[in-house]
Amino acid sequence: MTTDRDDLMAAFAAVVAASGRVRDALVGVSGDAKVLRECAHELDRVADRLVDSALDPGEPDAVAALTVDPRYGIRDRGLTPRHTITGGDGEQLFGVTTIERHFDGVGAVHGGAIALLFDDLLGRLANAAPRSMARTAYLHLDFRHPVPWGRQLQFFCRVAAVEGRKRFLEGELTLDGQALAGAGGLWVELRPSAPVCGSAR
């Protein structure tokens, strides 16, 4: 049975997926200025509709409020490569990602997109319940082979060590068993007095 929550999350995911198709299409767009101007006009109309339905300042975030944890719920806005976590626990997680064409650099996925992916995945694990909130202190990446877009890749992340407020995490991105990129980072638990940034709206 479909619930209001399921319907809202599915609708939000559909909008994000459609915006991803637009970005993918822009990578191979032709030089037809007329078509581009028409598309810009249509996208402006879409943006206006979304702005009209935006939340008022202070209003609860409708989509995030429907997740188990509003801070780390499933709310992929398309800023990071799409990925699916298929398993894990509080000490590790793993899954798959197929990085979209619009993240292409020069014949391979842009390194910044890989950094975004690892920061998101390792951050989710660093903040997995019952841990209190932590923020990224640093993130180091090791690029071993070019990362292709459009191929299903596997990722594995784990908590390497915990020292007081410090949480050290590691991750690896592979293709058919070959390591393409690795990451290591430090997340530091917030002090009780630390401010938590809210919405910019």
Q: How would you explain this protein's 3D organization?
A:
Strands 1-2-4-5-6-3 form a 6-stranded antiparallel β-sheet, covered by helices on one side. It contains 4 helices and 6 strands; from the N terminus they run H-H-H-E-E-H-E-E-E-E. It has 201 residues and is an alpha+beta fold. The longest helix has 24 residues, at 4-27. It has 2 domains: 1-64; 81-189, Roll (Thiol Ester Dehydrase, Chain A), CATH 3.10.129. The relative contact order is 0.13.
Helix-strand layout with pairing:
Layout (H helix, E strand, L loop, with lengths): L3 H24 L5 H20 L9 H4 L17 E6 L3 E7 L12 H16 L7 E10 L8 E12 L2 E10 L2 E12 L12
Antiparallel strand pairs: 1-2, 2-4, 3-6, 4-5, 5-6
Q: What is the string of SSEs from the N terminus onward?
A: HHHEEHEEEE
CATH-assigned fold name of the largest domain: Thiol Ester Dehydrase, Chain A
The strand line-up of the biggest sheet is: 1-2-4-5-6-3
User: What is the residue-averaged pLDDT?
Assistant: 84
Family: Belongs to the THEM4/THEM5 thioesterase family.
Subcellular location: Cell projection, Ruffle membrane; Cytoplasm; Membrane
Protein name: Acyl-coenzyme A thioesterase THEM4
Keywords: Apoptosis, Cell membrane, Cell projection, Cytoplasm, Fatty acid metabolism, Hydrolase, Lipid metabolism, Membrane, Transit peptide
Short overview:
By secondary structure, this protein is of the alpha+beta class. The chain folds into two domains: 1-64; 81-189, Roll (Thiol Ester Dehydrase, Chain A), CATH 3.10.129. Helix content is 32%, strand content 28%.
